[in-house]
Design goal:
Helix content: 55-70%
Largest sheet: 6 strands, mixed
Strand content: 5-15%
CATH architecture of one domain: 3-Layer(aba) Sandwich
CATH class of one domain: Alpha Beta
CATH superfamily of one domain: TolB, N-terminal domain
Oligomer: single chain
CATH topology of one domain: Rossmann fold
């Protein structure tokens, strides 16, 4: 067989042209199937069917091209078409087909690449991102009644928690990932703000006991989908779906899946639903929402007393109720009991170790024991922003300045859009005399949430300590209006400005409020120090000690208490709350 004549015949019969045109159109169809079908919730099998038909059709198209010719009169056998007077229109027809198909394909590529949810940032503006980094966005509720927000958030958070335990994968914490909820931000913007390369997003529809979940993993650098799938299951299979999504992401990102823990018993389906509702409210900051979360967790435990995550959720709610809304000796024992039960049921509950550690620190003044629990939490979940955050505060109160700053830096990296972590990062900057850094961190927190004032305003404190009294007064007054709580920091600012009468007026307001609401003793003591009444300050500090105030150990680094350093009573108090006064004071005096 003469190969040269064979290839010449292929060319004469337009087989090459058909192959090129088929390839372009096939690529176009595959782009439509893989990029558009998931958004329309067309089942995943339809995508596979399109690809299979395209593959099967290729040899058929080549056979037809060999045997037939497209002419102005229609499709004719090649031998008949050869006898026709001219074939130039047919030649031009093939060219037109290729050009039109190619133009459509290029247009679709451009639209997909440069517009919509997955648009790409110019290469020059994209920072170096780790390929093994991911943010999990809250799934969108597509249920007809729009009443499954808690379920969508819960599923997203559980997938996030599972991924956080994967070795070598950096997972952004929930607070930061969920800050984009309802904002319709594009993937490139999200990736830039969270410093990740990959983003998981999805949707969920629930009708009775049937669920439909669509999930897609997107590379933020180029905007392409790395993986996508749709799952239709009974509600009882939700745990299997979560596992499937987690494993698919791990495989897509080519990271190592850590050794799986022993198989855990699946919780009761109704208990799980109640747990997800509790989880939803536990992520809010108001007392009403936190108490509502406790109710849901309790109802979940009534259905399934051995549900470890529901015990962890209970501990979490008490953690954030403590000091801010509830007296420490009411909240911390309940938190310790719940966290201990969660760990008894499942020792790998990393978050439960965080809450158990904090309860040991506060109830027993056992700083070393609390730190050991936090380190265990980080062994189980290196991506735990909460564990890094708690550990940073513990280390700072012990005089471990460098280690505290390193842990807080890691917490901010894992949860960059968390107002509470940003606020406490400012506290550590302020403790070590970095006023400009504290102000920058405080301003960043204000941008995240202009009305965020957890037990005061750290930005206002930074302004005050730098001598920017007007800015401090304005912010403290705003904090009082937003929270409805008199601000001890406002009294301190007036005292530093020499406006004693106004400082004493605010002091009286704070004491009046404290008669009917819990106010930490050290907060009131800080006003006494500013008014140069050290004896009264120590009386309030003693009260804080007796009440086991959760923030009492912060006096080791708070600038407000530096006038007490030379008083032997201060060193004695540090020792009683589990700190080494020699080490703490030596570190503090360096700043």
């Amino acid at each position: 067989m003469n190969l040269r004549k064979f290839f010449a015949e292929l060319k004469r019969r337009n087989v090459y042209k058909v192959a090129i045109a088929y390839g372009v159109v096939a690529w176009l169809l595959m782009q439509i199937a893989t990029q558009v079908f998931p958004f329309l919730e067309i089942p995943n099998w339809a995508i596979r069917l399109v690809i299979m038909l395209i593959v099967i059709g290729f040899p058929i198209a080549l056979v037809i091209a060999w045997a037939f010719e497209l002419t102005p009169e229609g499709l004719k056998r090649t031998e008949v078409a050869d006898a026709a007077p001219t074939r130039s229109p047919a030649h031009r027809a093939w060219v037109y087909i290729v050009i039109i198909a190619g133009a459509i394909a290029i247009g679709l590529f451009a639209i997909q690449r440069f517009t919509g949810r997955t648009k790409v940032v110019k290469q020059s503006t994209v920072p170096e991102l780790s390929a093994k980094s991911i943010a999990v966005l809250p799934f969108v509720d597509l249920s007809q009644a729009k009443d499954q927000e808690y379920f969508c958030d819960g599923i997203s958070e559980e997938i996030l928690d599972a991924l956080a335990k994967v070795e070598g994968l950096r997972v952004v914490a929930r607070t930061s990932s969920f800050s984009f909820k309802g904002k319709n931000a594009d993937v490139a913007e999200i990736a830039q703000k969270l410093n990740v390369q990959n983003v998981l997003e999805g949707s969920l529809r629930r009708e009775g006991n049937r669920i439909r979940i669509t999930a897609q993993l997107i590379n933020a650098r180029d905007g392409f989908h790395i993986w996508s799938d749709t799952f239709e299951r009974e509600l009882q299979s939700i745990f299997a779906v979560q596992d499937q999504i987690t494993r698919a992401i791990v495989e897509a990102l080519k990271v190592k899946l850590a050794v799986a823990p022993p198989a855990r018993p699946r919780p009761d389906t109704e208990a799980h639903d109640l747990y997800l509702q509790g989880l939803f409210f536990s992520n809010k900051s108001s007392e009403e929402a936190l108490r509502k979360s406790l109710d849901f967790f309790q109802r979940a435990l009534q259905k399934d007393p051995n549900y470890a995550k529901a015990w962890t959720g209970t501990a979490k709610a008490w953690e954030w109720l403590a000091d801010a809304y509830v007296k420490p000796l009411e909240a911390y024992p309940a938190m310790k009991a719940a966290a201990s039960k969660a760990i008894e049921l499942d020792e790998t509950e990393a978050e439960a170790h965080c809450y158990l550690g904090d309860s040991k620190r506060v109830l027993d003044w056992d700083v070393a024991g609390g730190e050991a629990e936090l380190k265990r939490a980080l062994q189980l979940d290196p991506n735990s922003g909460t564990a890094h955050f708690f550990l940073a505060l513990s280390l700072s109160s012990q005089g471990e300045a460098a280690s505290a700053q390193a842990q807080m830096k890691e917490a901010v990296k894992l949860d960059p859009l968390s107002p509470i972590i940003g606020s406490f990062a400012g506290i550590i900057d302020l403790a070590y005399g970095r006023f400009d850094d504290a102000i920058a961190e405080g301003r960043r927190t204000q941008l995240l949430d202009p009305n965020y004032f957890y037990q005061g305003s750290e930005l206002a404190a930074a302004y005050r300590d730098k001598g920017m009294f007007a800015e401090a007064l304005e912010l403290y007054k705003k904090a009082g209006e937003v929270t409805g709580v008199p601000q001890p920091g406002l009294a301190i600012t007036y005292a530093k400005m020499g406006r004693r009468n106004e400082a004493e007026r605010v002091f009286d307001e704070v004491k009046t409020f404290a008669a009917t609401h819990y106010v930490a003793g050290e907060a009131i003591a800080s006003i006494c120090v500013a008014l140069k009444d050290n004896d009264s300050a120590f009386q309030w500090l003693e009260r804080a000690y007796q009440e086991h105030s959760g923030s009492l150990q912060g006096i080791a680094v708070r600038p407000e208490f530096r006038p007490l350093y030379s008083d032997p009573r201060f060193a004695n108090l540090l020792k009683r709350i589990g700190l080494d006064p020699t080490k703490v004071l030596a570190t503090a005096k360096r700043f």
